[in-house]
Amino acid sequence: MSGAPRILLCAGHEPTGRAGLLADVAAVRALGGAPVAVPSAQTAQGRGTFLYQPTLARVLGAQVKAALELGPLHAVKLGQVPGPALLAALREALEGVDAWWVVDPVVRTSRGEPLSKLTRRHYLSVAGPKVALTPNLDEAEWLLGGGEVRTVEEAREAGRALVAHGFGAVLVKGGHRETGAVDVLCLPGREVVLEGERLERPPERRGTGFRLASALAVELGRGRAPTAAARRAKSYVTRYLRTGRD
């Protein structure tokens, strides 16, 4: 495609930008995309403070419809979706939009605080040939209803099982694996292991999972095939970890 791909980002707003919508926007801009930022919730996440307030479903739906009136969307990236009503509003507003969805199943914080009332069934219900799911190891376990996912081979098995639900791609993020940041991309009929070195992550460089999913949305929105898109997204996150710059 010519021009910057226009990427709809739907996620919780975390004011410091360590995660959530601001991290998504930074990733999209760093890769030359045009972000359309729709907050699914307002969040407060400090050392001891935690709270989130979902956006009204009718407001979220109207924001998406208004964005479509101003131009096409080339990809959609979902992060925190607090509940079924918001997911339904998104699906209704995006009906008929022919674009990749990248669905990052963000249901709790890294400390375990809940961020969503969506169930595994809700996430599996959005499966489709142009839907990419991007769980980390813990999220892959949760989506499959149990069973440990820690090794690369277990990630492959989990990815295959999720693809079998009808997803066009499943990227099992291995950044939390102690032996190295190896991600596994599973597609219908094949898998690709994306090797990566284990880099020390300074405390201020958070939101790598958000950035990886958003970068994947940019590259898919550009028209790249899933494997090439995943490689470029991973390269971007590696650069961010090394330099601290988006």
Number of helical runs? 8
State the major sheet: 9 strands, mixed
Classify the beta-strand content into a percent band. Answer: 15-25%
* Helix content percent band: 25-40%
Structural class: alpha/beta
Give, in spatial order, the strands making up the sheet with the most strands. Answer: 3-2-1-4-5-6-7-8-9
First-last Cα distance: 23 Å
* Poorly predicted runs: none
Rg over C-alpha atoms, rounded to the nearest angstrom: 16 Å
- Report the average pLDDT across residues: 93
Number of strand segments? 9
Overall shape: globular
Strand-and-helix sequence, N→C? Answer: EHEEHEHEHEHHEEEHH
Throw out a few tags for this protein.
single chain; 9-stranded mixed β-sheet; 246 residues; globular; alpha/beta; 20% strand
